[in-house]
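Re: weekly structure request thread

Next one in the queue (185 aa):
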Amino acid sequence: MRLVLASKSPRRIALLKEQRMQFEIIPSQSPERSGKKRPAARVKDLAVQKAFDVAQKYPDAVVIGADTLVYCKGEIIGKPKDRADALRILKKLNGSWQSVYTGMCVLCLAEQKMLFGHDVSKCKARRLSDEELENLAGKHMDKAGAYAVQDKDDMFIERIVGSRTNVVGFPVEFFQKLFKEFLAL
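Done, posted below.
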């Protein structure tokens, strides 16, 4: 079975490698746009789009797509556009509870098989000073929420309820369950 991860995220790659699975990395070129308004629906939609984008080129492969976002105070928060946006995001999240959603899709076009779903974790951000927020802003431009729980120097999140790997962007436990169900189809 040819397994493909439709992502170039170093965190997703590392977490999937920890599962001792042989896979290729072929990042999706999907534009990451969704008309879905609810966080769970949006991450599932984007994960399916990413998997389908790669699967069209490799129809015999089993393709894994994923997408992560942060939801806080009624706002869906993705990756920051620039340093100023990162600072705005961090100020919004500062001292607050938030939800981190990751959508996942496992797809094989040749076998006409697809499963998708999402995981959600709750996070409490530590209250940081304006100076600490300024120092953090811009360090994690490629991450939803503009922070990185896996970075030892990033102490922004003080508590996680749910899957820590979900907050990193690849919910290992959820993926294992989804993949097992996919293989049984």
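The longest helix spans residues 39-57. The beta strands are 3-5, 24-25, 62-72, 75-77, 97-108, 113-125, 157-161.
Next request, please.
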